[in-house]
Amino acid sequence: MLTPLFAAFLLLQQPGHRTIAIDERLAEDGRISIGDRLTISSTPGSLSGDTVIVSAIVKRGADPAEIARSEYRVRMHLDHLQKVAGYGDRVDRFAVSSRGPRTIDHALSAINATAFGFQAWRSRDIAVETSRTFQVVSRFHKAIGLITIVASAIFLLCIMLLKVEERRRDVAALRLMGISRATVVKGIVAEAALLALIGCALGVALGWVSSQFINWYYQGIYRTPLYFSLITPGIVSLAVGLSLVLGIGAGFVASLRLVRTPPLTLFGR
Amino acid sequence: MRFALAWSSLRRHGTRTLLATLGVAVAAAMLLDMVMMSTGLRESFRELLLSRGFQLRLAPRGTLPFDTDATIENTTGIIAKLRANPAIVTVSPVLGGTIHVPVRGKVVTSAALGVNPLVQGDYELLSGKDPKGRDDIVANDDFLRATGARVGDTIEVSAGYDPQLRTYAGSRKMVVTGRARFLYGAAAQLATAMQLSTLQEMGGPDRRDDSSLFMMKVRADAQVESARAWIERAIPEVSAISTSSALAQVDQRLSYFRQLALILGTVSLFVGFLLVTTLMTVSVNERISEITVMRALGVSRMHVVQQIVLEGIVITIGGATAGLGLGLVTARYLNGILSSFPGLPVAIDFFLFQPKAAWVSLGLLSLSGIAAGVYPSYRAASLPIATTLRQEAIA
């Protein structure tokens, strides 16, 4: 409690200096604390600059657009930055809030009708435009996912085929004992379903552990609170559904092949 | 003999062999794609950086070229300093900006580069002439299409707006002297180039002697890294970036893709290995009696092992060969997706085919195929002959 009060006291004691807020990454790397004096300049390596006091350390937001750029962020008052950067009375953009969703269209057309050299956009449209990078990454992930599903399907079919064919003699014995083809098929399909379910449970657990590791690893590398891997109920349902359908389908196909073969042939006679 | 036996064994279980080969093909395709991705982007970027022979680049301190709107002041002074170093043979300053061209009631906005046409390394001229005059401009096809201009036409070009006076700022009439392909341009990006001094003038007094980037060629017998270190000492307001340091920066920014390639490549290799191992184990278990009879007839243990390992190799090589073709098709598809990254130069490929990548994939899979067959075959060939024959007969 005393430290913030002391920092605030220090700030009040130095009215000649402007204050800035820095992000936690800069504070950590530069070992900067609240109340520290810094000299800032728009010219790299400049010896003369504006002395400021750090008044706040800001937590970084989970912005995907920033993860690959290991940049520091400093927040200043607008007039201060304009002065330091020699930017004159210019800004890059204005954020405008409207009275409600219904007034947005009217405000947009009114601004664009009178504007010269600038244009008004909906925040939603800007968000779509700036998230194009992540749409590309998302499409790439979907494509990789599709290839993985194809590979898993073939793998599963192959394994089920081998697993069922390993039971040639059991099936032959059952058929010779008078057990119907349908019962044999049902038994094998039930076994396949059980195997698929156990595999799903293990897969979901492995996926969850991997997801935790991925988030821990990349959050550390990129120093961001962003989540890189999310396991949602939808994803789990898709994975479990696909595995069950593929597992049961593969079991069914393999068992059909087996019951259509004469029992003595299965015995190798 | 061994190959004939292995082949007949594989043919006896056609469906199983086909599925296993298909599984290995998909794993091989994925592995090839991941090997291509892990090296492709880096190699492609390196080729792009060195395409015009510039080994060094200077950007405003702490930034990468054109990463921000920051510029370097005192271009003339910096060129003079750079020329004082005998290791530097060519200096090409570049200023980046935006131009606006009013066309039939609308405004076409395009990227513009201010360059020295004699030493520039940003574009390749496709037709026409370089912008050697103060009012000359060269443009890419996207720009010409958007404006409807052709080589020889005169267009009105502005560098900005003056909202208070409601007029364009830095306007001048320019002649399109050539069509060019911009090496660092993104897909569908409108791009133009003109003389550096022209773009500086159009930018107003603030940009009178500014540059965004300097590109430099270093003498063949000089050390690039020494020149880079000298520049950082002599000109503290810039960051000097050599090809290797630029690649290191790119590696850092795109480490995600390399790590993804490593993880998926490892998983693919493991899946391929697991598939062949499972197949070989089941296949060997099924053929215990056959193998024991062969052993009883005097066939050596090594012969049996070699035959079964050969089966694994045939599946692996068959699958890997099919997988190489499949991998190239999927790499093209995936590259098409990643190439649409906003601002990514057209010349950059995420998946670059290199024969080495193909050989690495094929070699890794072949090794895993051999390893997959060794244990089950050795185990089967080592079973006691008499006991196994008796058990099989009872069964």
Please give a structural write-up.
The complex is a heterodimer of chains A (269) and B (395). Chain A has helices at residues 2-13, 24-30, 78-85, 101-114, 123-130, 132-165, 168-176, 181-222, 233-259, 263-266; strands at 18-23, 37-40, 50-58, 74-75. By secondary structure, chain A is α+β, with helices and mostly antiparallel strands. A four-stranded mixed sheet of chain A has the order 2-3-1-4. In chain A, helix 8 runs antiparallel to helix 9. The termini of chain A are far apart. The model of chain A has no long low-confidence stretch (mean pLDDT 82). Chain B is an alpha+beta fold. Chain B has twelve helices and twelve strands. In chain B, the strands form two sheets. In chain B, strands 1, 2, 3, 4, 5, 6, 9, 10, 11 and 12 form a ten-stranded mixed sheet that branches. In chain B, strands 7-8 form a two-stranded antiparallel ribbon. The mean pLDDT of chain B is 86. The chains are: A alpha+beta (269), B alpha+beta (395). Chain A binds chain B through residues 43-46, 68-70, 86, 115-118, 132-133, 136, 139-140, 143-144, 147-148, 150-151, 154-155, 157-159, 161-162, 165-166, 169, 218, 221, 257, and chain B through 15-16, 19-20, 22-23, 26-27, 29-30, 60-62, 73, 160-163, 166, 206, 236-238, 252-256, 264, 268, 271, 274-275, 278-279, 282, 285-286, 330, 333-334, 337-338, 340-342, 395.
